[in-house]
Design goal:
Elements (H helix, E strand, L loop, with lengths): L2 H25 L4 H6 L1 H11 L14 E4 L5 H11 L5 H5 L29 H20 L11 E5 L1 H5 L1 H13 L4 E7 L16 H8 L2 E6 L3 H14 L4 E6 L22 H11 L10 H31 L1 H11 L7 H6 L7 E2 H15 L3 E5 L3 H5 L17 E3 L4 H12 L5 E7 L7 H9 L5 E5 L17 H6 L5 E3 L4 H13 L4 E4 L4 E2 L18 E4 L7 E5 L3 H14 L4 E5 L3 H5 L3 H8 L5 E5 L8 H4 L4 E3 L10 H7 L4 H8 L1
Helix pairs in contact: 1-3, 1-4, 1-11, 3-4, 3-10, 6-8, 6-17, 8-17, 15-20, 17-18, 21-26
Length: 661
């Protein structure tokens, strides 16, 4: 990098520092340490390294930057503003304020240029590796010998916390195994944690660790533009594996009294220290100051960014003419194609009865893979048991990306973050599977997916204590309530083959994540579940057995317990009782229904209300009332055959009748 370039990039770095510490001080909240310490790295990324177009932030072949260390959001917002994304100077002045475009941690659904919601440390790395895998899948699918339309890079910046969190280790291990040659991770190695020096909690050799994962590792001075430039250029020209750049930085660089200490990590500098820092860096005292030279630099660069996309469009148009069938598939994936007659198609699938929910879903996903080019799936080493394997499709392997099956290994948290990253390619609808009890491992990834409405589908199997002999360590009890507590997440527990089919329609049409919760044991196909989506699962709850007169009992159930509820109803009717049975596969969908429909299903005089679900009863009293009876699981289950468990925990017709009648 020549001397003139170093001068302007130093100005950009100091402008990032200036904007960031002013934003944090104005808000009296934030993390100045990373903004001061990573200013050279971020200046280089947004000033030179990233190929993107701020005027079209959704361009498919853009380089992507993920700030895994999301507490450095003030730095990211400053970069986005300077680069010409839709972040104004007023937005930066409004940092961390109610309803602003610049919240405390980056949120993908608020501002363009934010690739993913980040903040819980390490997840950004997993998400970036998911994006990296997704782009390799797309490149393999659409690039030809004559035309390369996908060749972008995924950059991710994390700090000590990101690299200590286990999820980054899981994801890095898988990235190395798969030989992803489009991911560039930058480690802001400043040797300081929020609580103090990293030496108090960690003494590992990160370079050796990542080399053992199969990564190429660079160790540089994170404040030296020549070192940054040399590393990035070398990677661009020679990358064959994932790359980690360990950037030695000084946290809070420029702060006279707090540089190199944990005091600059998570608290504003204070007015006096802001003034002293600006003086030490040779910056004007004026707040939110941007030098004209920096403005002119990025103004010129934006024209170059646009030129990059224009050149790409020329290649894309040539590819389109040469490959019309591929282009049709590309458009289908871009638009997340669903056939107009999807419901009729799924209804026509022949599934024998009785059949386990997981097996019925396996039949459905294999059918969907043949008609939905955007559909990719994987499992955390359980595809033979959670039944997520796509039978006609290959397994993605090291350096081989034409398959549709992703083996995540025993890495549930990584799988959750990567699934979000796959979704955020914009062209892939991912599903991933594990046992319901292990959703706890990936809960925070599910939470972030829900926060940003990522279109991810989770197939959770072995849905209750009725999986049997594996015992309480593997028997989910509290997980249904836990997942239902997450805003924006659809949780669907289908009762039979028909509801499984309709659950997939709900998942594919919902603009957000869905958990489909499925049984291990066989379920019989029930009468009255073969209804239209709009009248059944698409309502969230519906009457599966109508009362003859004013109900003496109303039974609410989900999943395998719906069949049991119907059997209980039969016995009650033998005693001249009028009974309504309501299937409630998805509470979240039900809550979106008009009030008159909800009143029709759960309102009025329904007699004694009873919920039947093999899980904790949390949440059910909203529907059955405080005096309603919950047939539920108290405790953690036990290791025993299913029949013994049903007897022990009261999930038999006789036990339920004894409790309610």
């Amino acid at each position: 990098m020549d001397s003139d370039q170093k001068v302007i990039f130093s100005k950009i770095a100091n402008t990032i520092r200036h904007l960031s510490i002013d934003a944090i001080q104005t808000a009296n909240s934030g993390h100045p340490g990373i903004a001061l310490g990573c200013a050279e790295l971020s200046a280089y990324l947004y000033g030179k390294a990233l190929t993107h177009n701020p005027k079209n932030p959704s361009w498919i072949n853009r380089d992507r930057f993920i700030l895994s260390a999301g507490h450095g959001s003030a730095m990211l917002y400053s970069c986005l503003h300077l680069a010409g994304f839709d972040i104004t100077l007023d937005d930066i002045k409004d940092f961390r304020q109610l309803n602003s475009n610049t919240p405390g941690h980056p949120e993908a659904n608020i501002s363009k240029g934010i690739e993913t919601t980040s903040g819980p440390l390490g997840q950004g790395i997993g998400c970036a590796i998911g994006m990296s895998l997704g782009m390799k899948l797309l490149a393999t699918r659409f690039n030809t010998d004559e035309h390369t339309i996908i060749d972008n890079k995924i950059f991710v910046l994390g700090g000590d916390g990101c690299f200590m969190e286990g999820v980054s280790a899981e994801a890095a291990s898988l990235a190395g195994h798969l030989q992803l040659d489009n991911i560039i991770a930058i480690y802001d190695s400043n040797m300081i944690c929020l609580d103090g020096p990293i030496s108090e909690v960690c003494s590992e050799d990160t370079m050796k660790r990542f080399e053992a994962y199969g990564w190429d590792v660079y160790n540089i001075d994170g404040h030296d533009f020549d070192a940054i430039d040399d590393a990035i250029k070398d990677i661009r020209e020679t990358q064959e594996r994932p790359c980690l750049i360990i950037a030695q930085t000084l946290i809070g660089k420029g702060s006279p009294n707090k540089t190199g200490t944990h005091k600059v990590h998570g608290s504003p500098l204070g007015e006096e220290e802001v003034i002293a820092t600006k003086e030490a860096l040779g910056l004007p005292k004026e707040k939110f100051f941007i030098p004209q030279a920096v403005i002119e630099f990025f103004k010129k660069k934006r024209g170059n960014d646009n030129s990059d996309e224009i050149a790409w469009k020329g290649t894309f148009n040539g590819w389109t003419k040469a490959n019309p069938d591929m282009h049709t598939e590309f458009e289908k994936m871009t638009n997340k194609y669903l056939p107009d007659d999807l419901e009729n198609r799924l209804k026509s699938i022949k599934i024998k009865s009785p059949m386990a929910g997981r097996a019925a879903s396996h039949t459905v996903i294999n059918y969907l893979t043949d008609i939905l080019p955007q559909f990719y799936g994987g499992s955390a080493d359980l595809s033979c048991s959670d039944m997520t394997m796509l039978n006609k499709k290959d397994i993605i392997a090291p350096g081989i990306f034409h398959g549709r099956n992703i083996k995540f290994g025993v890495r549930e948290f990584c799988m959750g973050t990567m699934a979000t990253g796959l979704s955020q390619t914009g062209m892939i609808t991912p599903f991933c599977g594990t046992f319901l009890v292990f959703s706890d491992y990936m809960r925070n990834a599910i939470r972030l997916a829900a926060m940003q409405h990522a279109h991810v589908i989770y197939q959770f199997t072995h849905d209750s204590i009725f999986l049997g002999e594996d015992g309480p360590t593997h028997q989910p009890v509290e997980q249904l309530a836990s997942l239902r507590a997450i805003p924006n997440l659809q949780v669907i527990r289908p009762a039979d083959n028909n509801e499984v089919k309709m659950a997939w329609i709900a998942a594919l049409t919902y603009k957000g994540p869905t958990a489909i919760v499925l049984s291990r044991q066989a379920l019989r196909t029930l009468k009255n579940t073969e209804t239209n989506y709009s009248e059944g699962v698409g309502r969230g709850a519906y009457i599966i057995k109508k009362e003859k007169t004013t109900p003496n009992f109303t039974l609410f159930a989900t999943g395998s317990e719906l069949s049991l509820a119907l059997d209980v109803a039969t016995e009650l009717e033998k005693c001249d009782k009028s009974v309504r049975v309501v299937s409630m596969p998805c509470w979240e969908i039900f809550e979106q229904q008009p009030d008159d429909y909800k009143a029709q299903i759960i309102g009025g005089d329904l007699g004694k209300r009873v919920s039947i679900e093999a899980a904790v009863d949390m949440g059910w009293h909203k529907y059955i009332g405080i005096n309603g009876t919950t047939i539920c699981v108290e405790g953690f289950g036990a290791s025993a055959p299913i029949c013994d468990l049903m007897e022990e925990y009261g999930f038999t017709v006789e036990s339920i009748l004894e409790r309610i009648f």
